[in-house]
Amino acid sequence: MVFGFLKNSFNAIKSALKKTRSFFADRLSQLFSKKIDQEVLDELEELFYEADLGVKLSAKLTNKTKEYAAKHPDAKSDELIGFLRQELTNHLTSLDSTLAHGSPLVILIVGVNGNGKTSSIAKLAKYFKNEGKKVLVAGGDTFRAGAQEQLAIWAERLGVDIVSANYKSDPASVAFDAVSKAVSKHYDVLLLDTAGRLENKTHLMKELEKIRRSMQKHVESAPQETLLVMDATVGQNGVEQAKAFHQSTPLTGIILTKLDGTAKGGTAFAITEALNIPIKFISYGEQVDDFAPFDPTTFVQALLPLD
Ligand SMILES: Nc1nc2c(ncn2[C@@H]2O[C@H](COP(=O)(O)OP(=O)(O)OP(=O)(O)O)[C@@H](O)[C@H]2O)c(=O)[nH]1
Ligand SMILES: [Mg+2]
């Protein structure tokens, strides 16, 4: 059954990465079918860059490919792709994607408007519920009209408990109440939704710190996870936004959303390179099951299949 689940999620991820793959993998095979000279290496670096791997990582991978090709002058396309697959996997596995522990485990969800925070909370709630955990969600988005209702609908559909708040009330006090309930009623996991915010709005970024402090009044280590929800379709701009978030509120990981329908799946590599924090979950569709813990090997194999 576990293998069935893994196979299904691999196929789903593979299908979500279709656009990225046809852009990246197909051009890669074409380049690697030529003799690896400087011209091909320049094109390779450009391809990495266009695939949203970021300047630094693009240069690093090009250099490594150059070294490898020099040592293995007879290497065929398949071997070079195998080499690159390994390098990309190594890059992602250098960061630990496992979740922190906590009792309760408090997860603060932050990010720019519309990136998929509330739907990721629903997906996480289902994920933890499937693991047999007692889950509480909390509506820390008191800013957008309808945000509380959106979360309440999810909570009801998924059969998880919710702490709701009044429109325009203080999100820090919602956070305080939610942690208090999670402790007193022995929840395993608390997921706190927050309003969408732009990283250049200082007062909104400070609000996140206030939310964190109010959680810590109950549980000193909370939130053990602060996850930034990032829309993969935004590409490089998203990486800049993520850096700004990380500077004002320490992030422990990324949830990379909307991988379906974008050719910018390479953002996964750029973001980990730029922030040095792991991707912890990926989302690849609007359905509650279009979501999985991030597994570097699966991700790279879906991008550069073995066949
Ligand atoms: N295709 C696709 N759509 C997604 C994914 N994740 C979220 N969405 C959609 O993106 C839209 C915004 O999602 P929300 O979860 O409301 O985003 P949010 O960050 O909470 O938005 P605000 O609260 O307004 O800041 C919804 O229509 C979601 O269904 C995904 O992985 N793939
Ligand atoms: Mg929301």
Describe this structure in words.
With 307 residues, this protein is an alpha/beta fold. The chain folds into two domains: 2-93, Four Helix Bundle (Hemerythrin (Met), subunit A) (Up-down Bundle), CATH 1.20.120.140; 105-295, P-loop containing nucleotide triphosphate hydrolases (Rossmann fold). It is 53% helix and 13% strand. It has an eight-stranded mixed sheet, with helices on both faces. Bound molecules: guanosine-5'-triphosphate and magnesium ion. Magnesium ion binds at residues 117-118, 141, 147, 193.
Specify the overall morphology: elongated
- Under the CATH scheme, which class of the largest domain? Alpha Beta
CATH architecture descriptor text of the largest domain = 3-Layer(aba) Sandwich
Bound molecules: guanosine-5'-triphosphate, magnesium ion
Name the helicity range: 40-55%
> CATH homologous superfamily of the largest domain?
P-loop containing nucleotide triphosphate hydrolases
Could you give the order of strands across the largest sheet?
A: 3-2-4-1-5-6-7-8
Low-pLDDT regions: none
What does the radius of gyration come to? 21 Å
Structural class, please? alpha/beta
Largest sheet: 8 strands, mixed
Percent strand equals 5-15%
Number of helices: 12
CATH topology of the largest domain: Rossmann fold
- Mean of the pLDDT scores? 93
